[in-house]
Each structure stands twice: as structure tokens, then as C-alpha cells.
Request: fold
Amino acid sequence: MKKGKSKTKINLFHPPPLTELTAIFRKEIAKVKFTADEKRAYFEELYNILKQTEWKHLQPWAKTDFFKCWFAAISDDLLKASCKYELLKNQYLIKKKVTKKLDPLDMIRFLNEEQSKSGELLDSIILLFGIWLEKYYLDFSLRKGFSREFLRSLFGDGEDSIGWYNTMPVKKMDSFKEIDNLENISFRNAIERHGPRTKDALKILLIDIKPHTKTLLKQVEKIIEKEKQKYFEKYPEDKGLFVKKTKDGRDDTYPFDEWRRYLEVYILKQLGKTNRELAEQFYNKSNEKTIRQILRDNQKAKKLSINAVNINFPGTY
Reply:
């Protein structure tokens, strides 16, 4: 290998700080340009995926994460990254004299052989935005990864579900006991799926179900609040994804239905729809008021996209 050509591949399980990842990502896309045809093809693909998404069954924090991925996906930065990835892939196919598209196994070989060119680009995007650029995995990232079927396979019954068993004798205890010395049936799989922070976000309890339910719930609520505070002190950048407070301090949720509309308005505008057409589609009539609303929806989508790419989602929009 020539001197100066080697690169250290990003460790997905022990990633560098967000500032370093962002710098890597910016460097990878700095000189990338895209054509009008490439932009249209990219947004056509996104729109086809968007029409098939399922998200209303998700917990509020998962909905926030879902839309964070989507608003990152509609940015020019992700479009540039996609164009660069396709260019690298096509160069690889020509070099290897491959006449068919890459299947998932070919993609793994491509990433291994072209690691110095594409590895840091893809790994930084996965860690920053949770998105894969390969078309098959792009679909998985934005749609299948949040489908009911996937969540059931992840948390439901079966070999892939997260299971625990206790290695210590259960003696007489008070209402509950915090468990530390557990053997985890598939803890490694959980870490691989959710990243190294999973361990910090888990608290395992053995609960004596005999005491009064209200007493138990009060005790568990105190533990949850304590553990949440510890987690967000360690990972303050995660707080916006999980917790939103009203002015009087109550937990609240984000306007997810509006976010969904912003996304579709933005994507359809990229595909050539006029403001009048969009006003008819989303507000059932086209007049000065509804056209102004379409313009506001589009502007909000732009701001949310910028915030998502800058790891400040949802931020101010």
C-alpha cells in the first residue's frame, strides 16, 4: 500500500465524537456536485419510500428519530453523499467488470475493498443520521426499519428478542431489587442493533408483585426519573429526541402529522409540483391563503432538514 493512502476505518461500536464525525462527513461531500436528473431520481426514490412508511404506531421518541432520519434524507448534503456513493460504486463495477447491480453481499465486498474511498463516507452517515445509502438499505433505513413487522421481530418472542435471566438466588426482598449481575441472552445483538448507548439506557429490576400496585408504581417511577437524569447528563444531545417540555414543565409531543405534511410538500416541490397544485392537494383549494401555507410548510421542511443535518433536531424552525 502506498504511503499516505491508508485510512483508519470508523469503529461503529466505539464511534468518535459527533464533531469529528460531522467533520469527516463534510470533508467527504465537500466537492460533490449533482445534476438535475440525479436530484429528480433521488427524490422520486424518496417519495416512493415515503408513501409506504408506517410511523403512527411508534412511541414519541421513536417518531422523533424517524422524522430526524427523513429530514436529513431530503437535504442537499445527503443528496451529494448519495451521488458520490453511486459514482464510487459504478467505478468499482467497471473495475471488476461486473455487469449487474450490486446485491447485499456484493456491497459488503465493495465496502471492504473500497474502504479507503467509501467506508468513512458511509460510516459517518450511519452514525450521524441512521441512514444507509445503498438503495436496498435506504429503503430499510427509512421505511422497513420502522415497520410493525421489524419492531415485532426485534422485541417480540423468538430467538432475536432481548431476553434476560438471573444468575443469583432470589431471596426475600423489599418491593424491588436492582439487578447488576445478569447474564444476557442476546445483549450483544442489542448493542449491535442500537449502538453502545444501549447499556446505559437499560435498568433491570426484579419486582415483588405482592405489595400494593400503587406503591410499586411510585417506587418504579422514582427509579425511572433518576435513571433518565443520569442518562441525559451523560448524553445531553439525546434529550431533544426523547423529552419535550411545555412552558409549565409538562411532557409534550411534537406535531408529527405536520412534520409528515412538510416532508411531502418539500419532496413534491422538488419533483416539480406547483404551489397551486400542492394547495389543492393538501388544503382542498387553491387561494392566496392556502398558497402561503404551502410556502410556510416548505420553509419549515428546509429548516428541519438543516437542523437534522447539523445534529440539532428538531431545534428551532
Summary: The two ends are 48 Å apart (CA to CA). Residues 1-8, 145-168 have pLDDT under 50 and may be disordered. Residues 18-150 form one domain.
